[in-house]
Amino acid sequence: MSEQERQYNDAPDDGMDWMLQNLIKVAEAGAGLPVTLTTTGGTVAGHLISGKEYIELVEQDLSNAVPVGGSTEIIESIVEWVQKLSPVFSSYDEGGAYFIHLKEARLDVAGRLVSTGRPWRGNLSHVTGFIIGTFN
Q: Which domain of life, per UniProt (predicted)?
């Protein structure tokens, strides 16, 4: 057995799939892919996006929210907080990505993938499998 074969290990680090972590790096570079994920909570499908794009979509959703009573002060403070998080998503420590972000997420509801039209964020340690591509 060669040295390279002895060093190869497909075991997940901290329960996270290294291949999926690398696909997230591809999305961070601007080349997201359609994926379907099997998670401990069910199936979710959508287009893999960067954390930065995810934050921008959340910021847009929050900015369009209509608060009860008409005061936008609370929403504006949440948007400001979200904007401060943006730099965190463009750099990962040596452990890699810990979260995955999808746009146009479709969730498994009673055995059917139902479109949310919303961005989705999930913890990689709860993803048990994936395929590149989505179901129609």
A: Bacteria
E strand spans, the chain: 34-39, 42-49, 99-109, 112-115, 120-123, 127-132
Average pLDDT over residues 32-36: 92
CATH T-level fold of 3-132: SH3 type barrels. (2.30.30)
Higher pLDDT, 47 or 9: 47
State the pLDDT confidence band at 112, using cuts at 50, 70 and 90: confident
pTM: 0.76
Reading phi first (left if > 0) and then psi (alpha if -120 to 50, else beta), residue 74 is in: alpha
Nearest to 24 by CA among 116, 92, 76: 92
Q: How far is the C-alpha of 4 from the C-alpha of 51, rounded, in Å?
A: 33
Residue ranges of domains in the chain: 3-132
Please report which confidence band the pLDDT of residue 100 belongs to, taking 50, 70 and 90 as the band edges. Answer: very high
Q: Around Cβ 124, how many Cβ atoms within 10 Å?
A: 20
Distance CA 104, CA 72 (A): 27
